[in-house]
Amino acid sequence: MVRQTLVAVAGALTLTLMGTGVAHGGREPLARTAPAHWTGTWEGSASGTAAALPGASIRNVVHTSVGGTAVRVRISNRLGTLPLALGGATLARQVRNAPKSPDALPGTMRTLTFGGRKKVTVPVGRDVVSDSVTLGVPAAANLLVTVHTPGDSGPATYHRDALQTNFVAPKGNRVADVRGTAFTATTRSWYYVTGVDVRRAEATRSVVALGDSLTDGSGSTPSANRRWPDRLAERLRALPARRQQGVLNAGVAGNRLLLEGRGPSALARLDADVLSRTGVRTLIVMEGINDIKSAPNQTDPAALGAAYREIVRRAHARGIRVVGATLTPFGGYGGYTDRRERVRQEVNRLIRSGGLFDAVADFDAVVRDPSRPNRMLAAYDPGDHLHFNDAGMRALADSIDLRVLEG
């Protein structure tokens, strides 16, 4: 395994279901003028469950990393306890320049079907992927994925910390509404929708960022898409079309590498959130700080090293390269102790020099204060001494050598 170091341093058709996989039941045209290539453009990992919203329509706002000419959407009941009955689902582009509006851009509303059917029941523990719909989707655009739950399907699989204003119409099937006047409530979580793929003329790969709240975006500006994977996507979009890649954010606030915390552990969700995603060529792993700082605390760096090796082994079996990110400072945070700092430093030594990964993103070196290396630079600190503000997120993403992602 060749290691590289990043400087300072992802009714008509039968519907098939899989435990943590998906069904690609889309209806494709019989002939094309050019080959179709699918890639992931957005992800919101299932982080837990919330109370169901029976009778409501939920309008999720998701942000693309790359664009395309057709779209398919992943709907999840992975963490539910009852079958999920959807009374309808749609896809549209959000009205331009209005990230906090529930209005769809006129002319872009599309009905989502599943094996040709407008309604679908998703079994417990399963995901489904919609049939493809033709829609021109720009890169860096907001899409509206709206679902209607006519009854109580039990706990709703959701992504709690979306850092995005989403909308709820409390009563009725409003999935096809272009004007969002019925969507009178808001939520900061994504309900049921966990992935979006686009079809492109170019054979575009995707990068997955697997992490915790530091990847999920805690500390960055809400509804502004300033998480570090968002900035990485921006950098990749500046490349020629054939070199562009989708970026999928598999960050979950509170997530741990080894134990269930907020949502399944990184090891437990690897198949669903990384290996089953479309076109994945590179995985960036930034996990472990919650294992160190949160009870029950992990005090054995070798245990984290073994988990990293398992992730790499499973990713390599799918032809996916793995970049390991060093763990960033948390001095001044409430969970900090000198002993935990020593564990963090030892884990970072393993990441940098242990031959665990195909490449290393030295995020710790990017953000630490040289005069107090157990703390981040004040310019990157939103005030809690753990997460990153917009400037810190940008610094992480800008430190990644894009050549490593293209290899």
Automatic annotation (TrEMBL):
Task: Report the superkingdom from the record.
Answer: Bacteria
Position of the signal peptide: 1-23
SGNH hydrolase-type esterase domain: which residues?
209-395
Question: What keywords tag this UniProt record?
Answer: Hydrolase, Signal
For molecular function, the Gene Ontology terms on record are: hydrolase activity
- For whether the record's keyword set contains Hydrolase, the answer is yes
What's one Pfam family here?
Answer: Lipase_GDSL_2
Q: Which InterPro entries match?
A: GDSL_Rv0518-like, SGNH_hydro, SGNH_hydro_sf
Q: What is this protein called?
A: SGNH/GDSL hydrolase family protein
